[in-house]
């Protein structure tokens, strides 16, 4: 397949992959005039239909400047190439229907795991009635939003709660993290001791 001359890209992809949908990008010469590109686009279209609205697919034909910049931003050097959520997965090889579905499903599973893990964690913002307290809360909300995170942000204004967490002055911030260690079985005492040691 063709090698592409590297050019400087102005596209910022720092937030790429944070959508609640999986995005499959096909970088091609042009599926209308390149047979391998056409086969790859058709493979992606068919596999994406398997997942309904969980997956968005797009073709980026490098006959257009924006597509070339996009390709360089993803560090793609050969065409056609399939990227899943910004990660190069298949280069110059048309994957089988099964392999492509497996790759997309793996990314969906990863996102579900990330989502569930984040939902179990909390950022606690302590303080009430002061500008600094509100500023801190808004900063946490903004940071969470910019990261595309689903970590729960909780404003704690009850002074009795301050005492429980050892908060002596506000504004203050704490991170409460839930880590599941065991499900559906009974761990030994020795194993549980090791988990307790992690908390000390």
Structure report:
- It is a single chain.
- 40% of the residues lie in helices and 19% in strands.
- It has six helices and seven strands; from the N terminus they run βαβαββαβαβαβα.
- It has a four-stranded mixed sheet, with helices on both faces. Strands 6-5-7 form a three-stranded mixed sheet.
- A hairpin with a 2-residue loop joins strand 3 and strand 4.
- Helix 1 packs across helix 3 (97-119).
- The protein is elongated and about 70 Å long.
Please summarize what this structure is:
With 200 residues, the protein is α/β, with parallel strands linked by helices. Helix content is 40%, strand content 19%.
| Largest sheet: number of strands, sense, barrel closure | 4 strands, mixed
Number of helices: 6
Beta content = 15-25%
Specify the CATH homologous superfamily of the largest domain.
Glutaredoxin
Domains, number: 2
How do the SSEs run, as a string of H and E?
EHEHEEHEHEHEH
Write down the overall geometry. Answer: elongated
What is the end-to-end distance?
A: 56 Å
The third-level CATH topology of the largest domain is: Glutaredoxin
Unreliable stretches: 1-10
